Amino acid sequence: MLGRPRLTAAATAALTASALLLSGCTAASEASAAPETLRVALLPDENASEIIKNNEPLKSHLEEQLGLEVELVVTTDYSSMIEAMARGRLELGYFGPLSYVLAQEKADIEPFAALQEVEGEDPTYQSVFIANSESGIESLDDVAGKTVAWGDQASTSSHLIPKAMLAEGADLRVDHGEYEEQHVGSHDAVALAVQNGNADAGGMSLPIYERMAEEGLIDPTTVVKVQESEPYANYPWTMQSDLPEDLKEKLRRTFLDLEDPAVLEPFDAAGFEEVTDADYDAVRELAPLLDIDLEDYQ
Fold first, then answer.
1. Taking the model in full, what pTM does it have?
2. So which residues are the signal peptide here (predicted)?
3. Mean pLDDT of the chain
4. Fewest C-beta atoms under 10 Å: which of 109, 157, 218, 249?
5. DSSP letter string over 206-265?
């Protein structure tokens, strides 16, 4: 297993100066009583109202299994989700791998389950580098001089991984002026920017790309796959470390034993598998490699 390097100074400093301002605050360090309402944050990587609607079965399932009221939350962006977790305003958070790593720098949280896309396989997923079919991009090398759309700056599969693919696979870096980039906020926005010709190429989650193509939201003959990434540890469910131990164990079992198709469908998952913090060391390795600059991260 890889070691655990610190994030770049720019990344850490920028999180401290994020839009919602940490002001030196951290989550409570002492064990707390079980909350009356469990506030559960879902990753803001697509349309917020659709995310809430699609996850009503999850809300009902958690309320039934835990005997607590559940409130689903979709923050405006990754930064505000990280901030809310750090301030203890959320009990559970469904993060991307990179946003988890960034949140874990500021919040006392622990990952406990990651979605398993295929039963019996490791809980991993892939990013995909896409391009407009008229852009002339057939390989990563062709991205030189082009415009690339990313999602949120703290997104793993729509920023970190595809940016690493360009840097490592084609020796192309935006900080060297070898292509232009724009952040459009979410995976679906990346796909639509590429389809509409507002960007030549982009990076996004492979499962989201495949679902959008299947549902007719994008035309796969226009938004074409250039290259898929290697697999990385999948999106983790995390919880505040100071929750009562009996509640933490109930949460683990609720997710790890989950088999209800209505709950799993929005995640395109066969189930959830146990993960630990060490499973995300590969993501920690990529962040300093790319010298991620989050000074403008809002």
1. 0.75
2. 1-33
3. 87
4. 249
5. HHHHHHHHHTTSS-TTTEEEEEEPPPEEPPEEEEETTS-HHHHHHHHHHHHT---HHHHG
